[in-house]
Amino acid sequence: MSGGNLEKTELSLGFIPLVDCSILVAAHEKGFASAEGLSLALHKERNWATIRDKLNLGHFDAAHMLAGMPVSASLGIGQVQVDTIAPFVMNLNGNAITVSSDVYTAMGDAADGDLSEPAHSGAALKKVIDAYEAPLTFAMVYPFSCHNYELRYWLAAAGIDPDRDVRIVVIPPSLIAESMRAGQIDGFCVGEPWNSLAVDMGLAHIVVPKSAFWRQGPEKVLGTTAAWADAHPKTLNALLKALYKAAQWCDESANHAELAQLLTQPHYLDVPALIILRALSGDLAFGPDEAQRHVENFLIFHRQAANFPWRSQALWLYSQMVRWGQADYSKVGEDIARSCFRPDIYRNALSGLTPPPILPGASEKVEGALFDPTPAGAKGRPLVLGPDNFFDERPFDPDDLQGYLASFPTL
Amino acid sequence: MQNKASIQKAERIVVIDESPARAAILEAGLRDAGYQNVTLIDDMTGLLRRLSVIDPDVILIDLENPSRDTLEQMFQVSRSVRRPVAMFVDQSDASMIQAAVDASVSAYIVDGLKKERVKPILDMTISRFNAFARLSDELESVRTELADRKIIDRAKGILMAQKGLGEEEAYKLMRSTAMNHKKKMVDIAQSIITAAELLGGEGL
Q: Whole-model pTM?
């Protein structure tokens, strides 16, 4: 127990019902938080906006957040500016782009290649869209989500203008399958278990798991305000230790059945454990009545230094905000984005752990440049990164954000 | 003497609420305070088109309404509505914002609307939301009370049948047992019913 000198021991944390809230649930249910002297109260919310507002007002100490949220909040896009930080990444990957069964059948008829390749599925979708009279509608979960950026990137790579050729709307994760059943949307990008649930309802077919889009992309983070972190440095360190150990536990396949049993409870996901288990194991059923297929690295909770908040991840998110007109590029904006991911806090919090954690020496890396596992400099234990390439094999150099943006063909 | 309602206030207010009862209570309050330009919306389909026609100065919505993320994205992408931002316009008034969140009120306010014009609208909304929450709590406790009474009556019937007691005696027996065991009478009544169901017998 190390709770003696913490500024605060009872913490309120917000979460959205998704498989990637697992680390918070495990930290609370498996005793990792109490071992650090912390008692967690987890609050389920239906909106990312509610999470943001309750965090800003101090109702929450920290929260399960989309990786883009600390960046948009710190920049003050779409809200009043609040310095918000991400000292810990909760997972890499774990979402997917899914289309209705009708659209999938039409894509199959139009396809020139293997639909499991994002470039081929995008090209097939382009043909379907060109043939349809009314524009298709796609849902994602929040304007500053990886889901929005992945969907737009994938569409644009196939020559589909996400602002002109389709309609993109926001629908909260738990309402997405119902919206598809009601015929309001033709496709969506959302985290699990909501893709698998739509598949099991016989409505949809998974097309692009995130790992096929970007083999190692950030997804959710632990977010808190800079003011809270400044006022509670010891508490934050204790929380990061608890989350780090919970992440290790969640990443072990031997624990997945137990984790699914925890998550299936009504106050967490309230979705059958067998469906949750698909995301945890990576054995996805892509379409109704299809046999499960294994997707390598579908969801990464811990391995490959997944929890380390690379500043280059924040910069990639900023590049997408600029690409899609949410932000105007500025050097100041770039600096704000870079500094809201906090590898310094991560290193400081975890450096004393035994066995020693992997602590990367660098704080930024070129994203999407590794096609094979590659050793990288680290303290503690050896670090092997990647492969982490994007499906279009375009690397993101955080030192040349504008050059990266200029490399995309205009639509 | 000037009638309060005759002071017409020009702010255009939209209320989005899944609860028609709460929306109606809020609308009545705003109208009484002189806000004649209030529109209630309970259906999210075609929302953007309606908002662009109404061109509201203030949008009031339940903090937990699942449509808030949808609403915020509409503000982002559309050029047909002015861009309101979530309530933290003026962080200097932390107590008002705190009160709003406690009452589960969230407001979107179009940039440029002065604080002194926003405050009375929010104050009104907060007090009506709180009144509604109290009303809901009271309704819930009335419902619980009714359900409790049914259980107690049933247990009383069992005692009367099995122990040959009068109504008054059966009631007193349950009450004294509850007091002796430091339990609620409804819990004792429920135990009697459960026991009778398990053991069988008359009075069920």
A: 0.84
